[in-house]
């Protein structure tokens, strides 16, 4: 306790330059995130918190990533990783906030919060923790932000102040660090090269041609042009180059742009998936305007945990064709669903489900409802919500529209696939064996810990090759309704409270009624109008989402709601 008390005093809370009220840190959608210069104490304490989580799990390794993902370069933040590679339990968020906000002189309050974090484990994890006699350890990684080195050092100091081993894993994408943590705890190799090798092997196996394919369409799928990738001038630039080397020999080539190494590079600024998805424009740098019309491209975000596809305009003045997270989810769910069906009767009782958020385009929800026979699950924004929901499914495909997502296979589903493969092989039921092997290989191609742009790209590219889809993949299954997402800056965004997976606004009074009236006045049913507002958990703004059959209606509804938000949250 004395060592910790001394060390925390060396990492004091920031003071506002105007000498005003102390800054309050809140645990947002994806952890702590704000201006980098005020984050030193938070990173120190988050390091200590990750150390406490390692202690809670009997010394299994935990992790911390210093990143502000899609935010501008001046921001930074903290994402915490549990021993299973997942995000910090939501029940700990208030403890993390109490820890982050306690005064540096009040080491007792901090130690109390850390004690609580070191005790909180669910029943199954508690059993594993008791069985583990490992030396507690925390992995620390950071993205490419200039502030990252110093903040990672603060986190490393926080871990060591807890008497726990701190391992600096250097610069990595968020999903890489999640993977390293999961791998080391499950006895799998956890070097960067192992991560690439695993994903590449999954891709290679999934796309390997059998003899029929060779004679039918000789080399057809080898002729895919290089995939053009916008790396957002972030950590993906370097890391996708590493992946590229691992997959090149299997015929998958990348043309990497905005790698963060040019004189005019600027993280997430005019580039990256957040811009492309929200503004429906190609990245402003990287020469996207001179690509052939209809070229298939990918854009990732600053820490490479999101991916969205887009196709360059077919003719001048036209917008890009966007393939957002909703469309990617449908592509993946449809492929996995087909493999499950083709594996019958050897594989039974395995169902593919989908998890979305309120941002999911209504056309995707309608399509999935018809396809699955029930509406997809809808949860609040944040990977932590989607991931947990998907864990309840046999095979759970989750994606946010902004490109965060993956497919999760439950342990029972993985086992059923393995057993069915043995059975089908014994019976020499080759069509079923082929489908079952596709399900096995897909699992290898997927980062099992968390949504990952790099593994997402491999999975999508593999599916396109298996299905021999070379042309446009935009609106393959349904046509998106027009939609728009707008940011509104208000005095205090926390005055807005939402319920029903953020689809209804409970506070401030009158806002939801106003939204309903605006939609009714447009003839909601006829224009398939839908709208909601919610406070961002990563930026200081309120987000307004509107969709309808046409752009003009979306524009009018957006303007009217933005005005109401400004009025009622002033
Ligand atoms: C983070 C979360 C995502 C979320 C996004 C926007 O993304 O991980 O789940 O969709 O923020 O959240 P909000 O609308 O609350 O600002 P990232 O890529 O920035 O880590």
Compile the SSE list and pairings.
Elements: H1 2-9, E1 32-35, H2 40-56, E2 62-66, E3 75-81, H3 93-101, H4 107-119, H5 123-131, E4 137-142, H6 148-161, E5 165-171, H7 174-185, H8 192-207, H9 211-216, E6 227-230, H10 236-248, E7 254-257, H11 273-279, E8 296-300, E9 307-311, E10 321-323, H12 325-342, E11 352-356, H13 362-372, E12 377-378, H14 383-391, E13 395-399, E14 405-409, H15 411-426, H16 430-445, H17 453-466, E15 482-488, E16 497-499, E17 504-507, H18 511-521, H19 524-527, E18 530-535, E19 542-548, H20 551-568
The structure holds 1,6-di-O-phosphono-alpha-D-glucopyranose.
1,6-di-O-phosphono-alpha-D-glucopyranose (G16) binds at residues 29-30, 69-70, 301, 305-306, 381-383, 400, 402, 404, 536-539, 543.
Descriptive report:
By secondary structure, this protein is an alpha/beta fold. The chain folds into four domains: 2-186, Alpha-D-Glucose-1,6-Bisphosphate, Chain A, domain 3; 196-322, Alpha-D-Glucose-1,6-Bisphosphate, Chain A, domain 3; 325-466, Alpha-D-Glucose-1,6-Bisphosphate, Chain A, domain 3 (3-Layer(aba) Sandwich), CATH 3.40.120; 482-568, Alpha-D-phosphohexomutase, C-terminal domain (TATA-Binding Protein, 2-Layer Sandwich), CATH 3.30.310. It is built from 20 helices and 19 strands. The strands form five sheets. The protein has a five-stranded mixed sheet with strand order 1-3-2-4-5, with helices on both faces. A five-stranded mixed sheet has the order 7-6-8-9-10. Strand 4, helix 6 and strand 5 (165-171) form a beta-alpha-beta unit. The radius of gyration is 24 Å and the shape is globular. It starts with a helix and ends with a helix. The mean pLDDT is 94. 1,6-di-O-phosphono-alpha-D-glucopyranose (G16) is lined by residues 29-30, 69-70, 301, 305-306, 381-383, 400, 402, 404, 536-539, 543. 1,6-di-O-phosphono-alpha-D-glucopyranose binds at residues 29-30, 69-70, 301, 305-306, 381-383, 400, 402, 404, 536-539, 543.
């Amino acid at each position: 306790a004395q060592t910790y008390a001394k060390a925390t005093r060396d990492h004091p809370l920031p003071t506002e330059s105007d000498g005003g009220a102390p800054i309050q840190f809140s645990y947002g959608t994806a952890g702590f995130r704000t201006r980098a210069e005020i984050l030193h104490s938070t990173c120190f304490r988050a390091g200590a918190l990750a150390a406490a989580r390692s202690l809670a799990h009997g010394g299994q390794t935990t992790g911390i990533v210093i990143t502000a993902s899609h935010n501008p370069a001046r921001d930074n933040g903290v994402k915490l990783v549990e021993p299973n590679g997942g995000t910090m339990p939501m029940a700990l968020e208030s403890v993390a906030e109490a820890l982050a906000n306690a005064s540096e002189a009040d080491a007792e309050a901090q130690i109390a919060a850390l004690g609580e974090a070191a005790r909180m484990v669910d029943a199954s994890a508690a059993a594993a923790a008791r069985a583990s006699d490992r030396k507690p350890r925390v992995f620390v990684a950071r993205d490419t932000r200039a502030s990252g080195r110093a903040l990672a050092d603060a986190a490393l100091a926080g871990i060591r102040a807890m008497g726990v081993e701190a391992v600096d894993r250097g610069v990595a994408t968020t999903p890489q660090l999640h993977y390293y943590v999961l791998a080391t705890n499950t006895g799998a190799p956890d070097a960067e090269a192992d991560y690439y090798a695993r994903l590449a092997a999954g891709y290679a196996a999934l796309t390997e041609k059998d003899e029929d394919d060779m004679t039918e369409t000789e080399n057809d799928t080898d002729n895919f042009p290089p995939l053009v990738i916008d790396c957002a001038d972030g950590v993906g630039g370097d890391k996708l180059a590493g992946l590229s080397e691992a997959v090149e020999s299997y015929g998958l080539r990348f043309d990497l742009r905005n790698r963060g190494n040019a004189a005019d590079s600027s993280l997430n600024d005019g580039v990256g998936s957040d811009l492309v998805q929200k503004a429906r424009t190609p990245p402003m740098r990287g020469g996207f305007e001179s690509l052939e019309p209809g070229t298939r491209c990918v854009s990732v975000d600053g820490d490479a945990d999101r991916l969205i596809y887009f196709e360059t305009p077919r003719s001048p003045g036209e917008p890009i064709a966007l393939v957002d997270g909703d469309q990617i989810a449908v592509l993946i769910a449809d492929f996995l669903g087909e493999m499950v069906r083709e594996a019958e009767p050897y594989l039974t009782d395995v169902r593919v489900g989908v998890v979305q958020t309120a941002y999911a385009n209504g056309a995707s929800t309608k399509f999935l409802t018809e396809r699955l026979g029930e509406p997809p699950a809808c949860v609040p924004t944040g990977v932590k919500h989607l991931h947990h929901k998907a864990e309840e499914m046999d095979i759970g495909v989750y994606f946010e529209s902004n490109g965060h997502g993956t497919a999760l296979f439950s342990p029972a589903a993985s086992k059923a696939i393995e057993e069915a493969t043995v059975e089908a092989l014994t019976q020499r039921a080759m069509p079923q064996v082929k489908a079952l092997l596709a399900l096995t290989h897909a699992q290898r191609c997927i980062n099992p810990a968390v949504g990952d742009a790099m593994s997402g790209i491999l999975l999508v590219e593999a599916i396109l090759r298996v299905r021999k889809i070379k042309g446009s993949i935009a609106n393959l299954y349904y046509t998106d309704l027009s939609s728009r997402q707008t940011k509104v800056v208000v005095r205090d965004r926390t005055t807005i409270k939402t319920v029903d997976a953020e689809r209804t606004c409970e506070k401030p009074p009158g806002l939801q009624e106003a939204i309903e009236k605006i939609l009714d006045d447009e003839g909601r049913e006829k224009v398939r109008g839908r709208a909601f507002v919610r406070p961002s958990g990563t930026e200081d703004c309120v987000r307004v989402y509107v969709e309808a059959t046409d752009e003009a209606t979306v524009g009018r509804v957006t303007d009217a709601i933005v005005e109401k938000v400004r009025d009622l949250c002033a």
